[in-house]
Amino acid sequence: MEYESFIELVKKRRTSWVFKPDPIPDDLIEKTIDAARYSPSGFNSQPWEFVVIKEQELRDKIRDIFAKHLPSQGVKPGMKDPMGFITAPVLIILYGDPRVRPFAPPPVQQSDENWLSVLTSSLAISYQYMHLAAASLGLATRWVSAIKAPPIEHEVKALLGIPEEFITYDMTALGTTDFITSEKKMRPLSEVIHYGLCNKSEFRTDDEVKAYFSEGYSIGNAPSKTS
After folding, report:
1. Residue 111 pLDDT more than 60?
2. 53 pairs with which residues across the strands?
3. Is residue 47 part of a domain?
4. Residue 46: which H helix or E strand, with range?
5. Residue 135 resides in a domain
6. What are phi and psi of 224, to 5 degrees?
7. Cα dihedral 211, 213, 218, 219 sign
8. Considering only CA atoms, which of 90, 81, 95 is closest in space to residue 58?
9. pTM over the 0.85 mark
């Protein structure tokens, strides 16, 4: 793949808040996950487990678990799509298996901080590969990080039969969409790249950081319109 094609794919991957109910063929789901399993992982541990939820009944139960524990976000049982993932025909939850830890190099195995850093990085890379693969297949995705909230995590694991010791990384909503995102605000390359020895003056001031979030700031993923 040429760089130009790759960068277009990267730009194409955006977060969707609205999904069509159309089912997604199993081969596309498997291609999305197959790409993710080729991502690098600490000491090639491949600690990932991907749990795919397609059944409407299970997706409804997960929705209701969210509704019970996140009332402050306006999530209520039976609402159509208050969090931008409920109408997605497929949910994929990424779990990490901690049983790989004893096989890690000693500096990783013996330090909780190092171990969690390696595990989290491994899962994060795999997760991003999955989103890029989905974009290449013309599918839409959404990160649903609230799956990690302790009461939600516990109930979803119990619902799906997931070992309690597994570590929840994140949940992906997967489907097709006609959702149109707003223009994504990007910091210029010249502002974020630095070479060699650096000086504090090269980096943003506190005021400039605040300005980024206050002056016409947009996450680039907020609902705009559908067509």
Report:
1. yes
2. 91
3. yes
4. none
5. yes
6. -120, -65
7. positive
8. 90
9. yes
pLDDT in tens, 20-61: 999 999 999 999 999 999 999 999 999 999 999 999 999 999
Helix (H) or strand (E) holding 91: strand 90-96
Distance between CA atoms of 147 and 67, rounded to whole angstroms?
Answer: 12
Please give the angle made by the CA atoms of 85, 90 and 95, to the nearest 5 degrees.
90
Residue 124 lies in a domain: yes
Provide the domain count of the chain. 1
Mean pLDDT of 156-183: 94
What is the domain extent for residue 136? 3-181
- CATH code of the domain containing 139: 3.40.109.10
How high is the pLDDT of residue 1? 85
> Within 13 Å and on the Cβ side, how many CA atoms surround 40?
4
* Residue 220: pLDDT band with limits 50, 70, 90: very low
213 domain-assigned: no
For 159-194, give one letter per residue: b (16+ CB within 10 A) or e. eeebeeebbbbbbbbbbbbebebeeeeeeeeeeeee
